[in-house]
Amino acid sequence: MSERTIALVTGANKGIGYEIAAGLGALGWSVGVGARDDRRREAAVDALRAAGADAFGVPLDVTDDASATAAARLVEERAGRLDVLVNNAAITGAMPQDPTRVGPAVIRTVVETNVIGVIRVTNAMLPLLRRSASPRIVNMSSSVGSLARQSGADAERTTGLVAAAYAPSKTFLNAVTLQYALELSGTNILINAACPGYVATDLNGFRGVRTPEQGAAIAVELATLPDDGPTGAFFDDAGVVPW
Ligand SMILES: NC(=O)c1ccc[n+]([C@@H]2O[C@H](COP(=O)([O-])OP(=O)(O)OC[C@H]3O[C@@H](n4cnc5c(N)ncnc54)[C@H](OP(=O)(O)O)[C@@H]3O)[C@@H](O)[C@H]2O)c1
């Protein structure tokens, strides 16, 4: 078994996921770059290695059972265990997503990636995470999925994004994160949700105001929690995000 801490980041070929991989690599960890496209994955691995990280490619389409199983096998063969899983891959789905007009197919596609994809990859990796001394799971969520932030009193209401597939997919992901935390309470696995803030990436046509590196910081923090750290919670750089 490897002595280095082993992490896997899904959707790590670009955007926030790439910067999470870079941040974990800078800690001296061995980082699996989960990505579905061979060329984009190899380019990211090359760039991370050029920056000094111990990066390795992990072919992974989070919507595909066989791909998740093969990814787990690859990590097992390479390292024998997994210490940290960052479920970062996500899509917004076709816009606009007004709830009165959105097609069921758009909802299905977004939930398949953003929610079921997280469950699929997490469950494929859990046997490897259970072999770690300090397993951590970070689910990249968004404050647009916070029910409190969408509905609360004016001071709390900081998002009003109308995106009936994407925003509820993150609410669903938050609920799933809590479900894992409940089942895994009493184990050493800490699982939390993170919001990176509004980050300039492909996801939003680069309209975000934060850099991918800034967006990655909260995931790196939750990936490196101490053993007595929180679980079943939702954080951004400012602290706890209300559900
Ligand atoms: N950007 C923001 O302002 C913002 C705000 C709140 C939350 N977030 C969350 O932060 C995370 C990263 O977003 P981002 O802004 O960095 O987006 P991004 O630049 O669009 O990157 C998304 C990543 O997910 C990958 N991906 C999508 N579907 C996949 C699949 N089926 N299998 C494997 N990988 C897949 C993409 O791969 P391809 O290159 O192959 O498409 C890409 O690597 C997401 O969970 C997002 O919801 C972002």
What does this structure look like?
Helix content is about 40%, strand content about 15%. With about 240 residues, it is α/β, with parallel strands linked by helices. The protein has an 8-stranded mixed β-sheet with strand order 3-2-1-4-5-6-7-8, sandwiched between helices. The protein starts with 5 loop residues before the first strand and ends with a strand. The structure holds NADP nicotinamide-adenine-dinucleotide phosphate (NAP). NADP nicotinamide-adenine-dinucleotide phosphate binds near residues 91, 195, 196, 201 and 202. It comes from Streptomyces roseus. Keywords: NADP, Oxidoreductase. Belongs to the short-chain dehydrogenases/reductases (SDR) family. One of its GO terms (molecular function) is oxidoreductase activity.
